[in-house]
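chain below, 335 aa
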Amino acid sequence: MARQAHRGSRRCAAAATPIVAAPSAASTDATFEDFVDYIQQLQSSILSGAEQLDGSGAKFVRDQWQRDPSDANAGWGATCVLEGGRVLEKAAANTTVVRGTLTAARAQAMSSRGRAEIDPKGGQPYAAAAMSLVFHSAHPLVPTLRADVRLFQVAGQSWFGGGCDLTPFYVNEDDARAFHAKWKQVCDKHQEGLYPKLKEWCDKYFYIPCRHEHRGLGGIFYDDMSTKECGFDAAAFTRDVGDAILPSWHNIAATRSQLPFTQQQRDWQLIRRGRYLEFNLLYDRGVKFGLDGGRIESIMVSAPPLIAWKYNVVPQPGSQEERLVQVLRKPQQWA
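prediction:
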């Protein structure tokens, strides 16, 4: 891991002072700096809301980090983690701001997605900023929440990305409909017909080919979005996505966490978490991007706290566990 010029951990208060770093030559764009301010404010808001929802008194611990400016991928950020809560067994909400030089591997991956501005040989300066979170619940009836918003700049171009998706251990159709209705509302505000496109994108992205399953019930997902190409304000849309992350999950978690559960349900939750990690390590593009010079603790913090690995687990016919597998093999329209 790259040498760090500064690193410190402390309890993460809701109104924690954001890290302020001077812009580098890689990016002095106002859009980028505004987005950096936004994701720090968003992170603080989410931390406060999550602590209140959890209600156990557990607090996020803030690990502020900053790489040596001489590093090829110099950057800074804050990794905030809550563990052992009542609702949240492990929750992480991270901000990352990086300015560096594209490696050949990163450049080739981006240019292969149709970005003519990217030189596949690498060597171009870039700037990237993101807020990402994963909330792993302590309760098997409360689904895992994953979300992010991000901005990538290179060659004078800005591309936004983000999304939010739900990974339950048991299918609750009311919860699925409410979650997707929220995201359809966010999308409809910006462009008619946007939700089904981003929902399909999410279903395709979060797929585990070796299992012939989707990771969860989906949500929305988008990448490489620019205002010029999409026909609406990509920056404003991305901020609306960020603002809707916690509200889309809050009522589900607050309601389901009050219900009793069995050891059998808990065991199933731990087994299904294995699928979550399989996707992250085998297929997730963000993880692969981060491992190419990224900060390993901030990347792997998304891993579940406990996982049960059992051989050839087959749910009982007609069970709720089998119902989940059936739904994950054939995505449904929820909104």
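The radius of gyration is 20 Å. The chain is about 40% helix and 25% strand.
thats it, cya
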